[in-house]
Amino acid sequence: MPDTLRFWVNRDRDPKGAQVRAILAAQFAHERMQAISLLLVHALVPVGLVVWIAAVRPGLLPSWATELSELGWGGGLIGLIVAVVRGRLYGKQARRLAAESTPSQSGNEPA
Question: pLDDT tens across 7-44, in order?
Fold first, then answer.
């Protein structure tokens, strides 16, 4: 189930919408990192298969293919770790900013 982000806009406190922009920027960055993570997970599967074949049958693939697949798998794994960590940080930031926009008095409009 996708996360739902709910926040309020108080035009008196934030007439230019800087708070809304900050919330949405963090949420969009969080969603981008999730998409990158998913892409990298799916890309690591075939590359991992090539690494596995090279490990099981050492002479089956040329050495350049083995080295390239190992480099690609390692780089993809590092990229995946970075994307997951950044995605979680952006998600926390979006939730924190949305929680700070929670109405403390009546007159706020849900966005």
Answer: 677 777 777 878 888 888 988 999 999 999 999 999 99
CA–CA dist 38, 83 (Å, integer): 10
Tokens standing for residue 84? 């997951």
In three-state secondary structure terms, 97 is: helix
Distance CA 32, CA 106 (A): 34
3-state secondary structure of 8: strand
How does pLDDT run across 57-77, given as a tens digit for each residue?
Answer: 988 999 999 999 999 999 999
Distance CA(76)–CA(68), nearest Å, equals 12
> Global pTM?
0.73
Domain range list for the chain: 44-102
List helix spans (H) across the chain.
18-56, 63-100
Is the CB of residue 93 less than 8 Å from the CB of residue 5? no
